[in-house]
């Protein structure tokens, strides 16, 4: 058995097994479309594993005048106008949640933070305990704060009592995507295109998240 087989096992075989009754909310914020695309890949991977999936965006806080002044931002907002905005009920509905956000000075965007700050009532009533969570991020250079951004999201999740399902090094695709064990992250060039090929890593992360969520659901039955 090779070192990779010893380290990763047969994760690809495990991912072909269908999940049952796992509900996943993929919640994102995106200006130019990168994290929207990451969310779409996550949804595809989760559906391939048999999960029921909702892709949801957090509400925009920026003034419309600012958005209008940025052609790329304006175009993305228009292209995703039919994506539903996340509601607190969606968090109650979900067994698992994947967050996808760009970095803002090594932290999550204000739009995502504002939404998370509205979850106090759910937290107080124990509605977020044992949610299985994972996160992804992007930045304009390889060391632009992607890892710190993901960890900032996980800090909130620890307060929820959620269960973090980071990808770690559970599959070789993590290395092909840049090797971030906390969650898939990607570099976005000045042309707005992703530099690393992260699609497979995103789908693996999504499948791992719903797999862990199924284990938790079965354990609670």
From TrEMBL:
<comment type="similarity">
    <text>Belongs to the WrbA family.</text>
</comment>
<dbReference type="InterPro" id="IPR029039">
    <property type="entry name" value="Flavoprotein-like_sf"/>
</dbReference>
<feature type="domain" description="Flavodoxin-like">
    <location>
        <begin position="24"/>
        <end position="210"/>
    </location>
</feature>
<dbReference type="InterPro" id="IPR005025">
    <property type="entry name" value="FMN_Rdtase-like_dom"/>
</dbReference>
<protein>
    <submittedName>
        <fullName>NAD(P)H:quinone oxidoreductase</fullName>
        <ecNumber>1.6.5.2</ecNumber>
    </submittedName>
</protein>
<dbReference type="GO" id="GO:0003955">
    <property type="term" value="F:NAD(P)H dehydrogenase (quinone) activity"/>
</dbReference>
<dbReference type="InterPro" id="IPR008254">
    <property type="entry name" value="Flavodoxin/NO_synth"/>
</dbReference>
<keyword id="KW-0560">Oxidoreductase</keyword>
<dbReference type="InterPro" id="IPR010089">
    <property type="entry name" value="Flavoprotein_WrbA-like"/>
</dbReference>
<dbReference type="Pfam" id="PF03358">
    <property type="entry name" value="FMN_red"/>
</dbReference>
